[in-house]
Design brief:
Layout (H helix, E strand, L loop, with lengths): L4 E11 L5 H11 L3 E6 L3 E9 H13 L6 E10 L7 E3 L20 H7 L43 H8 L20 E5 L4 E3 L3 H10 L4 E4 L4 E6 L3 H11 L7 E3 L3 H4 L3 E2 L2 H8 L5 E6 L15 E5 L4 H7 L6 E5 L11 H7 L6 E5 L11 E5 L2 E6 L9 E7 L2 E3 L9 E10 L9 H18 L5 E5 L5 H7 L5 E5 L1 H12 L6 E11 L5 E10 L2 E8 L2 E2 L4 H5 L1 H13 L9 H6 L1 H12 L6 E2 L2 H11 L11 H9 L11 E5 L2 E5 L1 H12 L4 H27 L3 E5 L6 H13 L3 E3 L11 H11 L2
Parallel strand pairs: 2-5, 8-15, 10-13, 12-16, 19-21, 21-22, 23-30, 25-29, 30-31
Antiparallel strand pairs: 1-3, 1-4, 2-3, 6-7, 6-15, 8-9, 9-14, 10-14, 11-12, 12-13, 16-17, 18-20, 19-20, 23-24, 24-25, 26-27, 28-29
Length: 758
């Protein structure tokens, strides 16, 4: 019996342009003997197919199941169509409005096919450091405008040779419409300079760079989203020199290794971590150290983890094949400044850091730091979401009007909503200087342009002094919505999990401006829609010296001790009082007593800092969160004991008193209990306190859902312990997996709440 000859129209939405989707459809249709056409539209790709019904059914199944590596299908619709008697299947020209709603692919690592060609001596692109195809290479960092065509990218300066153009025009070639397509004859090239801008090598710069790194020199290397500062991770002298020159005293350096086998020389990997390292997104993955290991102790001091990545550009592979166990590949920036993307800028900024510069002549239009992830509680969690993931959107459970959210001050990102998608930017950094503010403003302009939106609603933090808040308030003819910091944290967690309220939200971090003008950070909020109620928080404690107390945890320790013991604290036999001196601490107590520059805080982050100093871990920090991180690193997770704790109810708000915990810890210090045990008991105490409060709130409100957000939840002991204990007590727990729990995810929550306010 002859099967019916029919036609169908298939509309595909998602990341389906600039990723080889049309050639994939073209080849798939021919394989199934179908006629018709495929073209780009304003929302994705439209396919008209004609053929036998069973062949079309097979085509549709495979279309949804086996797309190109970089494609991300979000929606497929299917309609009956009139048979038009096409002679063949072809790739048609795009509709005039084809690029207005297109999703752009992130920058991704070199694919296996290109990698094979890179090391094939018979291939015309052998050792070409910018080899790419439709399935790999730069996207977001080289695009200036839509549509994603070569004239709108930094490749516009390089005219394709005949061979490259032929590949670009051939639907059967994997380089069909690969906008960065190039080769030795027509594309970008490398050059190596010393730090006086003298040309060292323009013929074999990679070979020379590897030799220089072997000799212990520091090299600034221009990559995909900016410069790295590189040094041999086994060379202690080189790593120490990089720390000193970059003024990065103790914060861990990221490292890169050629393959998984080399990583196994210094780190332990679970299968899920191996998969993350090898994925086309190529994030930095936090891996547990193997002891002993061959790397310099200065790579990641006082830390259980190495931040490790595999090569993701052809240049990286060409460099790493020179048998390094690992190279330090830290962001090419000065402390608190954005990563450098311009050759001349790098020469100026790193003149006293880098000995040599390995540069290229392909412009980077938008900087993008490496993403950082960690496996915790069975899931991949972002520490920093940037290269490899941005601008892939967070999909929402509702359609929204365009909103621009300006984020927080630290770990800033911005977010723009469009339809049912939230586009969270790459990591921008700490908005504390002009250069970062300029990057912030550039990112907003760039996102507006490539998303083709001009939001008339702008969201920002309540804090009046944040540069992001000042930017929002300076906008003309827009509606500005100011959002409480911790409310935004919880709203962001709810948005990425596609849930609506009510929830019990646990928002734990270091600093957030509260509705009462005080500094919040240890909060339980009942959140529903655009409203929240503060149900519980850590009791307020003075923060002597304000911002100075963040950099000097001994100040917070003195504040907690004075709150718990009063003048009796002077009789305590603990190292803190001896190390910092009576006069110095008396000055701090006087500040507290006289309320001089001592704002009150309920921050759990500050409590971690204070306890870190009390038990002798850290009196001063070199980077944000260091004291809390080191307390986590040494804590004994097997400890089952806890400290006494107490809360009071004041005007229907539960206030957790810190004095009983502090007294218990001081007693343990006095009795010689080892710090790992004290740390373990402290973590266990926090988990028990917040579980009991959640149970009380559940009884009062019937709410069984809990959302966890805030930078303190980067603490694996606390996050895993809270999830397990909450689930054991019948709660449904929601956590971050798509954006960071820290302030890098706060712009998402701001955007959602502002959208509800329209």
């Amino acid at each position: 019996m002859q099967r019916e000859y029919i036609a169908r129209r298939i509309e595909v939405e998602g990341i389906v342009q600039g990723v080889g989707f049309r050639p994939f459809v073209y080849q798939l249709a021919n394989r199934h003997n179908l006629k018709g056409e495929v073209l780009n539209t304003s929302s994705g790709v439209s396919i008209h197919v004609e053929g036998i019904d069973k062949d079309i059914e097979s085509f549709c199944r495979e279309l949804k199941k086996n797309g190109p590596p970089l494609a991300h299908i979000t929606y497929v619709s299917d309609y009956p169509e009139i048979v038009k008697n096409h002679d063949s299947f072809l790739i048609a020209g795009s509709r005039p409005d084809a690029y207005r709603s297109v999703l752009i692919s992130p920058d991704v690592s070199i694919c296996d096919d290109c990698l094979k060609e890179l090391f094939d001596t018979k291939d015309r692109r052998f050792s070409y450091p910018f080899i790419n195809c439709t399935n790999c290479g730069p996207r977001y960092t080289i695009i200036d405008d839509i549509p994603y065509d070569r004239p709108n990218t930094s490749m516009k300066h390089f005219r394709m040779c005949g061979k490259c153009q032929a590949e670009y025009d051939d639907p059967g070639n994997r380089r069909f419409h690969a906008q960065p397509n190039a080769c030795h004859d027509c594309g970008p090239s490398l050059t190596l300079y010393d730090n006086s801008k003298k040309l060292i090598d323009g013929k074999n710069p990679v070979e020379t760079t590897a030799s220089l790194l072997r000799q212990g020199f520091i090299v600034a290397i221009k990559g995909l989203g900016g410069f790295h500062l590189a040094a041999d991770a086994e060379n202690d002298k080189a790593v120490c020199a990089l720390r000193k020159r970059k003024a990065r005293e103790e914060k861990p350096f990221a490292i890169m290794s050629f393959d998984l086998e080399r990583i196994k020389r210094f780190a332990v990997m679970e299968p899920e971590e191996e998969a993350l390292l090898s994925s086309y997104r190529r994030p930095i993955v936090l891996l547990k150290k193997k002891e002993p290991n061959p790397l310099s102790r200065e790579v990641s001091p006082k830390n259980k983890y190495f931040g490790t990545m595999l090569p993701y550009t052809p240049l990286h592979y060409l460099l790493m094949r020179h048998d390094f166990t690992a190279l330090v590949m830290t962001s090419g920036n000065r402390s608190e400044e954005p990563i450098s993307i311009d050759n001349e800028d790098a020469f100026n900024r790193f003149s006293d850091i880098a000995d040599f510069y390995l540069t290229h002549n392909r412009d980077i239009y938008l900087r993008s730091d490496d993403s950082i992830v960690k496996r915790t509680a069975g899931e991949t969690r972002f520490i920093r979401r940037s290269r490899g993931y941005v601008p892939t959107p967070v999909f929402l459970n509702r359609t929204m009007q365009p909103v621009l959210a300006c984020g927080a001050e630290l770990k800033n990102t911005v977010c723009i909503t469009k339809d049912d998608k939230a586009f969270v930017s790459q990591h921008i950094g700490d908005l504390e200087n002009l250069s970062t503010l300029e990057f912030f403003e550039l990112t907003i302009r760039h996102m507006k342009r490539i998303l083709d939106v001009d939001p008339q609603v702008v969201a920002c933090d309540l804090h009046p002094d944040y540069l992001s808040t000042k930017y929002a308030l300076s906008r003309k003819n827009v509606k500005v919505v100011r959002v409480q910091h911790h409310h935004a944290h919880i709203a962001g967690c709810m948005a990425e999990n596609m849930i609506d309220g009510p929830v019990i939200g646990l928002a734990f971090d270091g600093t957030g401006y509260g509705e009462d003008g005080k500094i919040w950070g240890g909060e339980i909020l009942i959140t529903e829609g655009s409203r929240f109620t503060r149900a519980a928080h850590i009791s307020y404690i003075p923060m002597p010296g304000s911002a100075a107390a963040i950099k000097e945890p001994w100040r917070m320790a003195a504040s907690y001790l004075y709150d718990a013991f009063g003048e009796e604290m002077w009789g305590l036999n603990i190292p803190l009082l001896k190390e910092n001196g009576r006069d110095k601490i008396r000055f701090i107590i006087d500040m507290i007593s006289k309320r001089i520059n001592s704002p009150e805080t309920s921050s759990l982050g500050r409590l971690f800092d204070g306890i870190s100093a009390i038990i002798g871990i850290r009196n001063h920090v070199c980077f944000e969160g260091q004291a809390a991180m080191e307390l986590e690193m040494l804590s004994d997770e097997s400890t089952t004991e806890t400290y006494d704790y107490e809360w009071i109810s004041d005007d229907n708000v539960y206030k957790i008193l810190t004095a009983p915990i502090i007294k218990g810890i001081v007693a343990d210090v006095h009795n010689g209990v080892h710090p790992p045990v004290i740390g373990g008991k402290f973590h266990g105490t926090l988990i028990r306190i917040f579980i009991e409060l959640c149970k009380i709130i559940k009884k009062d409100t019937d709410i069984e859902r809990v959302a966890l957000s805030g930078g303190v939840f980067q603490n694996s002991i606390l996050l895993s312990g809270m999830i397990n204990a909450l689930e054991e007590n019948g709660f449904k727990v929601y956590t971050h997996k798509l954006v960071p729990a820290n302030d890098g995810g706060i712009s998402l929550g701001q955007a959602i709440l502002a959208g509800m306010d329209i």
